[in-house]
Amino acid sequence: MSDSVTTEFGDGLAVITINRPAARNAVNHAVAEGIAAAVDEFESRDDLIVAILTGAGGTFCAGMDLKAFMRGDHPDAPERGFGGLTERPPAKPLIAAVEGWALAGGFELALSADLIVAARDAKFGLPEVKRGLAAVAGGLIRLPKALPYQLAMEIALTGDPLDAVRAHHFGLVNVITEHGGALAGARELAARITGNAPLAVQASKHILSNAVKWTDREAFTAQGAIAERVLWSEDAREGATAFAEKRPPVWRGR
C-alpha cells in the first residue's frame, strides 16, 4: 500500500487515513489504490466491524488532484471508482471523520460513508460548477438523499460551501466536535457500533442502505433473505442467552 494512505487495524476498527497533507489530501491514483486496498482488507477480515476514513494534517480531502490529472494520473481504482470508494463503498459501516475542508471529490468520499463526524469549523462543498465540471463521483446522486432537495440543489448549482453546523442541523453530519476532535469523535461513535453483533450490524446496514430503492413488498422479501443468516446465527443465540444471564454478550461473528 502507498504511503499516501495509512491504515490502523484493531479492536474491531479500521482507520484509513489519506496522508498527503501538503496537497490537502487531494486524490491521485496512489490514494485511490490505497483506499481501495484498505477497504478490501477491511471487508475481508471478520475481526473488523467498522471503518473510519479521515485525512492527515487538519484537512479531510480537497478532491481530485488536478495537477496529477493533467499529467494523465487518474484518481480511481478498478470496481470501486473515484478515490477507491465512491462507486462501491464497503458492505460494513464506514464513518467519515472530517476536519477542515471536504471539497468536490472529498465531499463525495464523505457522502460515500454511512455516518459523518465533523469538527465545528469543517466545511463541505461541491464547487465543480465553478470549474466547468459536474460532481459525477456520487455527489449529485447521494446529496439529495442526505439533504432536503432544495438545499442539495443550492449546494450543487452555486458551488458554495456548507458549514458543519448547518450540515448537522439538516442531518448530514451525525456528530459535531470541537476543532481537532473529529477522529476522536468518530472513534467514540465506532465504539458504540463495535460493541454490537457483527452480523447484525452488517445486515442492518445492508437493509437500511437499500430500503429507499425498494417498494414495501420488495423490502420485506429482501430483508427476509438478508436477516435469515442473522436470526439463525450463534450470535443471535448468544445475545438471548447473555440477556437472560444478565452478562455482556461475547460475539463471534457467526
Name some characteristics of this structure.
single chain; 254 residues; alpha/beta; six-stranded mixed beta sheet; three-stranded mixed beta sheet
- What letter string, H or E per element, gives the SSE order? EEHEHEEEEHEEHHEHEHHHH
Radius of gyration: 19 Å
Quaternary structure: single chain
Strand content: 15-25%
Strands across the major sheet, in which order? 1-2-3-6-8-11
Count of DSSP H/I helices: 10
Q: What is the averaged pLDDT score?
A: 94
Helix content: 40-55%
User: Can you tell me the residue ranges where pLDDT is under 50 for at least 5 consecutive residues?
Assistant: none
| Amino-to-carboxy terminus distance | 30 Å
In summary, what is this structure?
α3 crosses α4. The protein is of the alpha/beta class and 254 residues long. Helix content is 42%, strand content 17%.
How would you sum up this structure, described in words?
The protein has 254 residues and is an alpha/beta fold. It contains 10 helices and 11 strands. It has helices spanning 29-44, 66-70, 105-111, 139-146, 149-158, 164-169, 182-194, 198-210, 216-231, 234-245; strands spanning 5-10, 13-18, 50-55, 76-77, 81-82, 94-98, 101-103, 115-119, 123-125, 162-163, 175-177. The chain is globular, with a radius of gyration of 19 Å.
How do the strands and helices of this protein lay out in sequence?
Blueprint lengths: L4 E6 L2 E6 L10 H16 L5 E6 L10 H5 L5 E2 L3 E2 L11 E5 L2 E3 L1 H7 L3 E5 L3 E3 L13 H8 L2 H10 L3 E2 H6 L5 E3 L4 H13 L3 H13 L5 H16 L2 H12 L9
Parallel strand pairs: 2-3, 3-6, 6-8, 7-9, 8-11
Antiparallel strand pairs: 1-2, 4-5, 9-10
Helix pairs in contact: 3-4, 4-5, 8-9
